Fold this sequence. Notes:
alpha/beta; five-stranded parallel sheet; 8 strands; binds adenosine-5'-triphosphate; binds ligand L45E5XJ5; P-loop_NTPase; dCMP kinase activity; nucleotide-binding; transferase; Cytidylate_kin
Amino acid sequence: MIVGIDGPSGTGKSSTSKAVAAKLGLRYLDTGAQYRAITWWMLHHGIDIKDPAAIAAAAGRAEIVSGTDPSAPTITVDGTDVAAPIRTQEVTSAVSAVSAVPEVRARITELQRSIAKEAVPGIVVEGRDIGTTVLPDADLKVFLTASEEARAARRSGELKGKDAAGLKATQEALARRDAADSTRKTSPLAKAGDAVEVDTTELTLEQVIECVVTLVEEKQQGR
Ligand SMILES: Nc1ncnc2c1ncn2[C@@H]1O[C@H](COP(=O)(O)OP(=O)(O)OP(=O)(O)O)[C@@H](O)[C@H]1O
Ligand SMILES: Nc1ccn([C@@H]2O[C@H](COP(=O)(O)O)[C@@H](O)[C@H]2O)c(=O)n1
């Protein structure tokens, strides 16, 4: 059972995917974490992230390893645990520029496909291009959406007491990242034609999880 969950930032992809995978005994892959990890590596090695040619030339050098246990997902680069540093503002601001480079996407897509192929008894993979590009033959594709306001409110609640930028600034940053991710040339953020769209604006996280679990179970029963 291969499930692809895509959607813009803050729609609940990670929370939903992890919970669905845990409930159904599937593996879990956060592909955003992989793009964040390669971005962290570029910054750490002084690669100019405004220079796509420099990013392309370095794209094959980082060794990214993702752990797919939904109750304890892990991510390392060249053996270093980068779970925390990939969530910094510095990485978040740079990730769309790095993920737009075709050589980066080719490398990470290959890695994602090999992880999905080896996952027993199946996997929930979340990202931006899973249904359209990475796993076009997935058994189930879900596209989560939510209003920009709801997504910003969720994110600023999460950042409170840390580097909270305020609701407006958070909303603007989300919109900028979504615009960059949706308009890049190579595998942009998009809903696959055969994906089930779920608008989460008015739903609790538990309701979204239940909805996706039901969709998976229907597929498993051949409905
Ligand atoms: N339906 C929901 N109602 C309220 N809060 C939610 C809902 N879904 C997710 N959240 C909360 O919103 C925040 C963002 O969720 P999550 O990280 O799962 O989104 P995402 O789509 O994976 O974001 P990104 O693409 O930026 O990684 C989390 O704090 C999560 O608990
Ligand atoms: N399939 C994907 C997943 C992610 N990206 C890029 O990574 C960024 C971070 O993703 P998060 O889910 O951790 O917020 C995202 O903004 C994209 O630039 C991608 O391109 N494809």
